[in-house]
Amino acid sequence: MQQHIEALIFASDSPLTIEEIQVCIKKLLGTELSSEQIQTDIDALVAKYEDEQFSFHIIPIAGGYQFFTKNSYEPTIAEFVKQKLNKKLSTGQLECLSIIAYKHPVSKSDIEQIRGVNCDYAIQKLLEKDLIIISGRSESAGKAILYSVSPYFLNYFGINSTADLPKLKEIEVIEENSIGIPNEVL
Fold first, then answer.
1. With CB atoms 3.0 to 4.6 Å apart as the test, which of 52, 55, 93, 165 could cross-link to 89 if both were Cys?
2. CB 9 within 8 A of CB 67
């Protein structure tokens, strides 16, 4: 059964939940597995892929499990993702996405106030790429549409929730270390 679970997690392009595994195994093999049985097999797989011979492992993310490259291969993957991300998201889209990630739920007018420019096109593209979702309407006059990041955003950036995003102080430290000049001097 463990190999079936491993194959399902491997084939999934998004985090696979225990419930989804249960449904698939039951439909395919006619066998009903308990959550505990599946968790035991997943735990065994997690332990298996921690071995140094593998460049990837299974991690819990966004309520499910998914294969990811190990941290020691981060520089290689970071370069690949950077090239891919730069091709797909413009600076304006990244700015809007950052604002939404940190301030969600947020309205378009709030995003525009922060950025100082119109963001209709950026929001449209982020919606098309499923990185953001419409999460409701504000209670203020006009009932503005509110935007939040999508589950795909969490998966795309490899985080469980927006609480895992770097804090402002962490970003400032990274900037200082990358250019060697304290922010106070800039």
1. 93
2. yes
Closest CA relative to residue 9, chosen from 72, 94, 64, 66: 66
Based on C-alpha coordinates, what's the Rg of the chain? 20
pLDDT at residue number 163: 83
Residue 23, pLDDT above cutoff 70: yes
Q: What would the pLDDT profile of 123-181 be if each residue is shown by its tens digit?
A: 998 998 889 999 999 888 888 999 999 998 888 888 888 888 887 666 665 555 655 44
Q: Which of 19-28, 113-122, 135-144 has the lowest mean pLDDT?
A: 135-144
Query: Which residues, at least 6 apart from 99, have a Cβ–Cβ distance to it below 8 Å?
Result: 106, 110, 111, 114, 115
pTM given for the model: 0.48
Q: Tell me if the domain spanning 89-179 has CATH number 1.10.10.10.
A: yes
Q: Are 8 and 19 in contact (CB under 8 A)?
A: no
Percent of residues in the chain assigned helix, strand, coil, to nearest 5 = 60, 15, 30
DSSP state, 16? B
CA dihedral over 8, 13, 16, 21, signed as positive or negative: negative
CA distances from 29 to 19, 67, 181 (A): 15, 23, 61
Q: Does domain 2-72 have CATH number 3.40.50.450?
A: no
